[in-house]
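Researcher: Please generate the 3D structure of the following complex. Treat every line as part of one assembly.
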Amino acid sequence: MRKFKEIIIEKLILICGLASIFFVALIFIFLLKEGIQVFKSVGLFKFLFGKSWYPISEPPQLGILPLILGSLLVTAGAAAISIPIGVGCAIYIAEIAPLKIKEILKAGIELLAAIPSVVLGFIGMVTLVPLVKTVFHLPTGLTALAGSIMLAFMAMPTIVSIAEDALYSVPKTYKEGALALGATQWQTIWRVMLPAASSGILAAVMLGIGRVIGETMAVMMITGNAAVLPKSILVPVRTLTATIAAEMGEAVVGAEHYFALFAIGIVLFVISFAINVTADLFLHKRE
Amino acid sequence: MVKFDIRDLDVWFGPVHALKKVSMAVEANEIVSVIGPSNSGKTTFLRTLNRLSDLTLNFKMAGTIRLEQENINDIDIGLLRKKIGMVFALPLPLPLSIFDNVAYGIRMHGMKNKKALEKTVEGSLQEAYLWDEVKDRLGESAFKLSGGQQQRLCIARTLAVEPEVILFDEPCSGLDPISTAKVEDAMVKLKEKYTIVLVTNNVKQAARVGDRTAFFLNGELIELDETDRIFTAPKDKRTDGYIRGKFG
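Model: Done. Output below.
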């Protein structure tokens, strides 16, 4: 009887474990099934590298290069802002801050992570966008730059908490070894702690970038949503995510436009997957 | 000449009173062994000498420690730790080549000249009795060395920055008897140039290498005397009990 119970529980747990994989597989199959049509009718190359996105013209032009570049531009900008600040913050929390300040900062970072992205987008729209407009004398402040700055805020909690973890898990003995040789605090951080934590910090950066590239709401609200090839960071851009969110409601089910949005979903899926796998590789290297 | 002059040293970690009114002097070019059961404050004592204890949460000290008449709290902490080298219980090579491990500290202190670096590295490895074993493979990773070799590499790394005092914190606790003997040989040789404070759990090691031996118990310095006397005619019966293995 007891053995029977064991077997039942074991099987139940197995089902729970398999469920997540099962759902991922289902989602991916569905995406693929809907999206693959476009690769057939437009062609993979023309779809990825086509320069114009006019989904409702006749015939529709379905090139997502402007959208890919829009996403990459916003992400690169956000990375350029959030990585140095995030890693710096992690170093401060893990190595320098006194206990009290450390706890306040950690709570603050957690709070930042708890702000819904639509709220961040809203705040960005009324404060950051006008600021960008006046500082750079632009016709509109709804630009890739505004999106980058806002997204940097969203990537920061991920980067800070994982990088801080990585620094924290460097054996204490490394630090003491360096200090006992007469190294200054900065020398110890720069030449011992950071190299020892490097794979964890890289993973933190990758996961932060993954968060940015998948973000939808805030970017849709503040990047201006113009599907043209961006020439600088000071023009409106449209990202992959915002395109799906904005157009899915209007697309006619079964039309080429509809399938193209699913194909964009596949592209996003592949990008996020690649980023997560890279992060995972770094994390495991650490162990 | 008195190297370390320690007067009424008290150390607390939060509510824990780790060292109680410890006073002792360490002469230049001698080896003082510090023995005692675990939790007797030996390691705390050692780590307070080069101010590594400062890193521990809620550390507080009273009393004075003077290194050649200068209060250690008045010396620049980088300079203090350069003057007082430390070798830890577990060998901690950095993930670098053998050469770079030894050169690490001196590079940090600003030595760039390649010739001078090479000379210092060779000299330090020789002093640590390791040169002959590694001279043909200085470029290899330090992790390829055996435990005993790694520990001597750490000694060489400490010597390279030209300290005056070397603190050994149970340097042989993870080593086999042959490696232990080599490290002990190195220590005895080193005292010609350096002053050594050796914390050890191995009473016999204290008897073999120490000129004088200090016995700590529950944060108090019970007795400090010539090693021969401590091991033949200790004044305190607790010392006698510990040495004979009755407790600890």
